[in-house]
Design brief:
The termini are far apart. By secondary structure, this protein is of the alpha+beta class. The strands form eight sheets. A six-stranded mixed β-sheet has the order 14-13-17-18-20-19. A hairpin with an 8-residue loop joins strand 15 and strand 16. It has 17 helices and 24 strands. Helix 9 runs antiparallel to helix 10, helix 10 packs antiparallel against helix 13 and helix 16 packs across helix 17.
């Protein structure tokens, strides 16, 4: 059996949270099975964990080269594992994987969330008789015995299974795209990527713990469809993204709108296509050069990372049986993302209004979150909202706002545009250029250029210069010479002709010989 993720990513705690990884220099059955029990109980609903045996740890970091295990040790450990698995109540069987690292062998126990949790483990699994069993949970990066309150909560979690880990009784092997499956494994640098064709889809899904049920009657899990099915809406109707733009605003003129093609596919496909659409339609950068510093001031109307985090969150926390699409509305002053259902009732309205961090122990699609983290699309651990606000803050944008109705049926995220992009906009034939922070119709500028008493090549240069200066740049001979690859003398001549045509004016406060477009 192979690891779903790259072994180096695991050893370096990339793509997997550090508290979900435990390094053991050697084989200590008592400690190991306390951790097996704790990961299987998955008290924080983070997706279980990995116990890496044969690797020493120093200050939370794997020591390289690894210590490793001898071949006879590996044989002995694997035989003992078979017996110790049955000492848990109920019995639990982690996946056993052997990897070669630094020319030495190590053993990995992949412990997924147990479907029969909660589990108890003996205090001493090596004891021959009189074993006392206790519940164990993960606390930070350690496995500890659960207290009374934690035991009660563990028992209450018995009947809860995240939606994405449940079996889908209608799905068949034909619904899984081999191409999507293999592409994912290649992107995450898994050795399984080389085995998809030879071993078959179902064998690979089984190794990835994406099948549910006994060997003779296995079903594909919902998360396998979310990740690797090209027609996800076949199983979960209206699992799609609908984007609509209101040029004048949905309140000022709701009848003036443009709908874009509906986005469908697997979850990663929809996220990527949605972000590509937003990047093509919406995202703009403004650059302002200032005379007192080397670097220009750069800002975006909407920072890409903030939008991406909001889109990913909509898919991560979505109710895939809601029969509702994810809706993105583009307004002149903000982008609104509406998804279903609303924010969990355990999160007070006061916290929602603050819009800083929403923390919940129960995740509807926690395994999907693991996959998105492997693709660097999500961080997990309730960091989505802080990431959105931090990206907006770094961009100089106002905070995002979050809303939900009293029945918590939907959640709305409003991401405001950067204030510098709120200047008055004038449109002629739908074409715009930005000059000194203001929007001016191209046709108006074309008329000015047309009346210039210069030849055609010069008019072309003037037009190119106007477009180049659209972020409000101040320019002089040096900038023009660099733009057109001409001499400073020729650049000075072009400036003189533009001054004669009353198209530019001196930029005060920027030194001699600096100009801006005259409006």
């Amino acid at each position: 059996m192979e690891l779903e993720i790259n072994i180096e990513d695991l050893l370096n705690k990339r793509r997997v949270e550090s508290e979900r990884i435990e390094f053991k220099a050697g084989w200590n059955p008592d400690e190991v099975y306390h951790s097996v029990c704790a990961f299987a109980n998955d008290f924080d609903n983070v997706g279980g964990g990995y116990i890496v045996i044969g690797v020493e740890e120093k200050n939370g970091v794997a020591v390289r080269p690894v210590k490793g295990l001898e071949e006879q040790e590996l044989d002995k450990i694997q035989k003992e594992i078979l017996g110790y698995n049955n000492t848990l109540i109920p019995a639990y069987f982690p996946k056993v994987i052997i990897e070669e690292v630094d020319k030495k062998s190590i053993l990995i126990l992949w412990v997924a969330t147990g479907i029969q949790r909660p589990y108890k483990a003996p205090e001493h699994v090596t004891s021959k008789k009189g074993k006392k069993h206790y519940y164990y949970i993960r606390y930070a990066s350690s496995s500890v015995r659960a207290n009374f309150e934690q035991e009660r909560e563990l028992v209450n979690m018995t009947n809860y299974a995240p939606f994405d880990t449940r079996p889908n009784f209608e799905a068949t092997e034909d619904d899984i795209s081999v191409a999507l499956l293999r592409d994912h494994l290649v992107e995450t640098k898994s050795k399984l990527s080389k085995q998809v064709i030879d071993r078959g889809t179902m064998a690979i899904l089984n190794d990835m713990q994406l099948l549910v049920g006994p060997f003779e009657q296995q079903y594909i899990s919902n998360v396998a469809l979310m990740m690797f099915c090209e027609h996800l809406d076949k199983f979960f109707p209206y699992t799609q993204v609908e984007i609509v733009r209101f040029p004048e605003g949905s309140i000022k003129n709701p009848n003036n709108f443009k709908e874009f093609p509906v986005i469908k596919g697997s979850v990663p496909m929809m996220i990527k296509r949605t972000m590509q659409t937003l990047q093509d339609l919406v995202i703009e950068e403004m650059v302002t050069k200032v005379n007192y510093q080397m670097e220009a001031i750069r800002r975006f109307n909407y920072p890409y990372q903030a939008l991406e985090e909001a889109v990913v969150n909509a898919f991560y926390h979505r109710d895939y049986l809601s029969g509702q699409a994810i809706i993105i509305e583009i307004e002149p002053e903000l982008i609104r993302i509406i998804s279903f259902p609303g924010i969990d009732r355990s999160i007070p309205k006061r916290v929602i209004e603050e819009g800083e961090r929403f923390s919940s122990r129960y995740y509807r699609n926690k395994r999907l979150g693991e996959f998105l983290k492997e693709l660097d699309l999500s961080e997990g651990k309730s960091t989505g909202i802080p990431t959105i606000q931090e990206e907006l803050r770094n961009n100089g944008s106002p905070k995002a706002k979050f809303y939900t109705d009293d029945d918590r049926r939907a959640v709305t995220v409003e991401i405001p545009i950067h204030p510098d992009f709120l200047e008055e906009k004038v449109a002629i034939d739908g074409k715009k250029v930005a000059i000194d922070g203001k929007k001016v119709a191209i046709d108006v500028l074309n008329e000015r250029i047309k009346n210039m008493k210069v030849n055609s090549p010069t008019k072309e240069k003037v037009f190119m210069l106007i477009n180049e200066m659209q972020e409000g740049r101040i320019f002089g001979r040096t900038e023009i010479a660099s733009l057109f690859k001409i001499s400073l003398t020729s650049a000075g001549t072009l400036i003189a002709k533009m001054k004669d045509a009353d198209m530019i004016e001196e930029a005060k406060g920027y030194g001699k010989g600096k100009y801006k477009i005259k409006l």
